[in-house]
Design a protein that fits this description.
By secondary structure, this protein is an alpha/beta fold. 42% of the residues lie in helices and 16% in strands. It is built from eleven helices and eight strands. Helix 2 runs parallel beside helix 3. The protein is globular, with a radius of gyration of 17 Å.
């Protein structure tokens, strides 16, 4: 049974949790048995209270495949209409094909290379502004919210807004790497400054990359106004030991202990 609709309205009062299911697909792709099921993983996470599902389909289909994107889109539309579907990727590779066909709630533009192991930097401004602007405009004309994957650079936020984006997703690996070290406080100040600059420019703030049950709460308590976190690798790793439901509840508990976005 699906949870009550109110469970998927938490974005109004709490940071939303979007579960990235790429790593579920990566495990499935090592065999030809169709297990574990990406759609089943998404459903279990939503049943446990997650607010959305994220996928990052790369051109080589090394984890999420085109058929997964379509299956998840159909699942959310049919059974979880209040849950967010976020498709992320490079808009100069294969992302825009999905945006044009499926019109997800959110498209997160990520500047990764086709052979890149994982995302490791944000867009550069002003260098990328001119080529991003028409694609941002196209996605928004389709009714899709656009978030740009960005380093924690306060000076770039006004330029992001100038090309029409709605949100930024702060690339949090530098914070995660510093967590528990003497550099943690400085990284938190850096991300807080970037979030404030984004909000001052009229942008909303997402965050993601290497966030986990330990470092998520301190991040949200220090960085103001985070509307959504997208978490995949650590969450799926936790689910291998704890199960999807208990894992999602653990992440929601970390979010509940932080201030609500304002």
């Amino acid at each position: 049974m699906n949870p009550p609709v109110s469970a998927h309205l938490a974005t109004a009062s709490r940071t939303a949790l979007s579960v990235n299911v790429n790593k579920v697909a990566l495990v499935r792709n090592t065999r030809h048995l169709g297990i574990p099921s990406v759609a089943r993983a998404a459903a279990l996470c939503l049943q446990a209270g997650a607010h959305g599902i994220t996928v990052h389909p790369r051109p080589d289909a090394r984890h999420i495949r085109a058929e997964d994107v379509h299956e998840l889109h159909a699942l959310l539309r049919a059974d979880w209409p209040r849950a967010e579907f976020n498709i992320e990727g490079n808009p100069f590779h294969n992302l825009m094909d999905f945006v044009r066909e499926l019109r997800p709630h959110q498209a997160t533009f990520v500047p990764d290379g086709e052979d890149q192991f994982t995302s490791d930097h944000g867009w550069r401004f002003p260098e990328d502004a001119g080529r991003l602007r028409p694609l941002v405009a196209e996605a928004k004309a389709l009714g899709v919210r656009v978030s740009l994957f960005m380093d924690a650079d306060p000076g770039a936020m006004a330029a992001v807004r100038d090309i029409g984006a709605d949100r930024v997703e702060l690339y949090t690996e530098p914070y995660a790497a510093a967590f528990g070290t003497p550099d943690e406080a400085a990284q938190l100040r850096r991300f807080a400054d970037a979030a404030r600059a984004a909000r001052a420019a009229g942008l909303e703030v997402n965050a993601g990359h290497d966030l986990n049950r330990d470092n998520l709460g301190p991040f949200l308590r220090a960085v103001p106004g985070v509307r959504e976190v997208s978490i995949g690798h650590a969450l799926v790793a936790d689910a291998l030991e704890m199960g999807y439901a208990a894992t999602v509840r653990g992440y929601l508990g970390a979010i509940a202990g932080a201030p609500a976005p304002t």
